[in-house]
Specification:
Strand content: over 45%
Order of helices and strands: HEEEEHEEHEE
CATH superfamily: Electron Transport, Fmn-binding Protein, Chain A
Shape: globular
Structural class: alpha+beta
CATH architecture: Roll
Number of domains: 1
CATH class: Mainly Beta
Length: 142
């Protein structure tokens, strides 16, 4: 993959504040939800937070296969990443993602038992722009 395409993919990812997160439900159907991106280690690792009691958390605890999709509708660009989602409840990760205002959802703060973190680890992806689809392994980008 050429450097220009890598830069486009990286820019789309870094400029996205939210993404569409897909899980597999209990009946084997895809389920999609928009979520805010709170942190990322690299193109390979992205963090989200939500309620441990949520439908999405239950999906990922049963089947960790996941997809995360970023898009720029003005430029008709899309980035699909596929991999696995972990549901984390340790204090270290919860503290890392904690934001002022979360108390509305988690009254007990960081230690609220219903607060959890999703850690997505990408394995492969597809970048769409200009009627072109480019498939890649995540290690080709990082």
């Amino acid at each position: 993959m050429n450097r220009e395409v890598k830069n486009e993919i990286t820019k789309l990812r870094k400029n996205s504040r939210s993404a569409f997160v897909s899980s597999v439900d209990e009946n084997g159907y895809p389920a999609v939800k928009g979520m805010f991106i709170l942190e990322h280690d690299s193109m390979k690792t992205i963090y989200f937070s939500t309620n441990l009691s949520s439908r999405r958390a239950k999906h990922f605890m049963s089947n960790p296969k996941a997809a995360v999709y970023f898009c720029n509708t003005e430029e008709v660009k899309g980035l699909l990443l596929q991999g696995t989602m972990e549901v984390l409840t340790d204090r270290e990760h919860k503290k890392m993602l904690w934001r002022d205002g979360f108390e509305i959802y988690y009254p007990k703060g960081i230690d609220d038992e219903d607060y959890c973190v999703f850690r997505f680890t990408a394995e492969k992806g597809n970048y769409y722009h200009g009627l072109n689809n480019i498939n890649f392994l995540i290690d080709e980008i990082i």
